[in-house]
Amino acid sequence: MFSALFQEIERWMKELLTGIVTSNLTNMFADVNSKTAEVASQVGQTPQGWNGSIFSMIRSLSNSVIIPIAGMIITFILCYELISMITSSNNMHEIDTFMFFKYFVKMWIAVYIVSHTFDLVMAVFDVGQHVVNGAAGIISGSTAIDASALIGQMNTAMESMQTGELVLLALETLLVRFGMQVMSIIITVVLYGRMIEIYLYTSVAAIPFATMSNREW
User: Fold this and answer.
1) What's the predicted TM-score (pTM) here?
2) Contact yes or no for 80/124 (Cβ under 8 A)
3) What's the alpha-carbon Rg for the chain, to the nearest Å?
4) Residue 43: enclosing H or E segment and its boundaries?
5) Contacts of 113 (CB under 8 A, 6+ apart)
6) Which of 107, 136, 157, 210 allows an S-S link to 40, with CB 3.0 to 4.6 Å?
7) Are the CB atoms for 180 and 32 separated by under 8 Å?
8) Is residue 56 pLDDT above 80, yes or no?
9) How far apart are CA 165 and CA 158, in angstroms?
10) How many Cβ atoms are within 10 Å of 65's Cβ, its own excluded?
11) CB hemisphere CA count around 54 (13 angstroms)
12) Predicted local confidence at residue 135, as pLDDT
């Protein structure tokens, strides 16, 4: 009598533990697949597509604050370049009209680049988005986990396990699932940090562009 009772309790425990392991694996594989697809989608976002309101604010800040500062830098560099050009030609005793032509062309290019900094930066991101989106489809397809096949194999293996082994396996899958959730949060934080960093770099991009008018480039 007691032997049959213990066998029923053991069978119930095995079914319970098998269900816990199966549930943990199913949820874990679903989380991995969804997070992989989300990462592939987020990485391929441009600053404008990720958050339009923040992008508009950053662009307005760049146009109203950063570009005037970049204009001052260009003015200083171009004045310095003009003075250096004149003094290097022996105070215009060895004047060459072509060097003035090069100077005005260089000035026009510098002003054009600074005034169109956002368009140039966004063009780079558009090219990058095209490349990343092309790779995202391959990555999502090749890294997708077939949960049904793996769970079927695990169920077959768990049929021959004892209760103690099933308890350890349930704890292991629970810990792995918790670790995957923590990793998912970390990935999300990293993605948001990446976009914030991109917005910061984009907002001040006009300043390094302004220094490109220096003859040292």
Assistant:
1) 0.64
2) no
3) 31
4) helix 2-43
5) 120, 209, 212
6) 136
7) yes
8) yes
9) 9
10) 13
11) 15
12) 67
**What is the per-residue pLDDT across 131-172, written as a single tens digit (0 to 9) for each?**
777 766 666 556 556 666 666 777 677 667 777 777 787 788
Task: Provide the residue type at 96 as one letter.
Answer: D
For residue 79, give the nearest of 197, 214, 177 by alpha carbon. Answer: 214
Tokens of 160: 């021959």
pLDDT-based confidence at residue 210 (cuts at 50, 70, 90): confident
Nearest residue to 39 via CA among 177, 147, 173, 183: 183
110: Cα within 13 Å, side-chain hemisphere? 25
- Beta strands in the chain, from DSSP E residues, in sequence order: none
- Structure tokens given for 83: 């003075």
| Pairwise CA distance, residues 60 & 13, whole Å | 63
Contact 64, 206 (CB under 8 A): no
Sign of CA dihedral 200, 206, 207, 209: positive
Tokens 């005793």 found at: 93
